[in-house]
Specification:
The chain has five helices and two strands. The chain is mostly helical and 121 residues long. The protein has one domain (9-120). The chain is globular.
Length: 121
């Protein structure tokens, strides 16, 4: 990534805010163009390093091994509409002495994309 060429995430966030203010009475329907590589990298940095792996078993550390290629692939699939969220891994955690509570753990890649979308919204 060349930081001198790519717009910073904070600058891009400000552009989204200005677009929303300008078109206050019209919905912003096309926001995926804001998910540039540096945006995806910022979302990756927001994912907990010790987060449990999803159904694919891939940890955050393993995802980082080919980070730029992984983020580019995720970005491409998110932008062209071919990304499909994989099933979540179901885990049961104790709720109290008698009950367990089910939780779903998404894959690392899905966590990154969810964080990226949340940053835009």
């Amino acid at each position: 990534m060349k930081p001198e060429i790519m717009e910073s995430v904070s600058t891009r966030r400000q552009r989204i805010v200005l677009a929303a203010q300008k078109n206050r009475h019209e919905p912003l329907t096309a926001l995926n163009h804001h998910m540039e590589l540096n945006w995806m990298a910022e979302a990756y940095r927001g994912v907990r390093r010790n987060a449990a792996p999803g159904i694919d078993g891939q940890t955050v550390a393993e995802y980082r091994e080919n980070l730029v290629e992984n983020l580019r692939g995720l970005q491409t699939r998110a932008k062209d509409g071919s990304y499909r969220a994989p099933p979540v891994r179901r885990v049961y955690v104790p709720k109290n002495e008698k009950e367990d509570r089910p939780i779903g753990i998404p894959t690392t890649e899905d966590k990154i994309l969810q964080k990226s979308v949340a940053m835009i919204l």
